[in-house]
Amino acid sequence: MKITKHSGDIVEFNPDKLKNSLLKSGASAIVVDNILHEIKKQMYEGIATKHIYKMAFSLLKKTANSHAARYNLREAIRLLGPAGFFFEKYIARLFASEQYQTITNMTLQGKCVLHEIDVLIKKNECISMVECKYHLGRDAASDVKVPMYILSRFNDLKERHHTIFDKRDSISKCWIVTNNRFTTDAVDFSNCSGLSLLSWNYPEGNNLKTKNDTYYLYPVTCLTTLSIAEKDKLLILDVILVKEIINNSDSLEKIGLSPNRIKHVLKEASELCRYI
Known about the structure:
Strand 4 (101-109) and strand 5 form a beta hairpin. The protein has 3 domains: 2-63, no CATH class; 85-213, Trna Endonuclease, Chain: A, domain 1 (3-Layer(aba) Sandwich), CATH 3.40.1350; 219-274. Helix 7 runs parallel beside helix 8. The protein is built from 13 helices and 10 strands. It has helices at residues 15-23, 29-42, 49-63, 65-71, 73-78, 85-96, 145-157, 184-193, 208-215, 228-236, 242-247, 250-254, 259-274; strands at 2-4, 10-12, 47-48, 101-109, 114-123, 126-133, 141-142, 173-178, 181-182, 196-198. The longest helix has 16 residues, at 259-274. With 276 residues, it is an alpha/beta fold.
């Protein structure tokens, strides 16, 4: 059976790919098989992948909110936009979980011009600049022009000393992070130029998806027990990660949740962050 991707491309339906993504949500093999069976009954020639996703999400939610939340991870990261400001904070949290010192949104004077830097990180005396490329569209990709431009900014900044974490700091490394993917040319150019990349699926085995599962870095936008407006209120309070709710349930009171709602949200959060 043919299905229609987000890009408009028509491809053959791959049930194994869907099954694997459902299993990664934490649902049991029996539950996944039942969901696949139900989805296949409702499929038709040319069905959009977004409709398949919605069916899978709805069926997962009936089994456990945390399964649906985990399955919703990529969309949840996209919901940290559209301005990208909260995505930058999320990326800073990601590096902090790996014992980096972090600073967000800093303006530094380069050799030639001023530069606004999304995130600056420090570990083992090495300071890196991190540029975040947020894409609203699911199929958008960062092409080779992105690392070429950022490399020129990095070269302008590394020529000078800055006051960042301490006086007379120097920037010696550069990262580019995107919520989607990089084109092949962007990867090749970055590797050749010494730039580090991080995306939803790159590098293999140590990307946004795998880091989330390893360090429980699920953003609050993936929770199914909160409305979009409630998630936005948490982000404004600088509550970016689900685990931060577990450690600070007062934030749920601040956004106006009842004790019963708080109980359900904390249950989903605890189940989500306990999964390995």
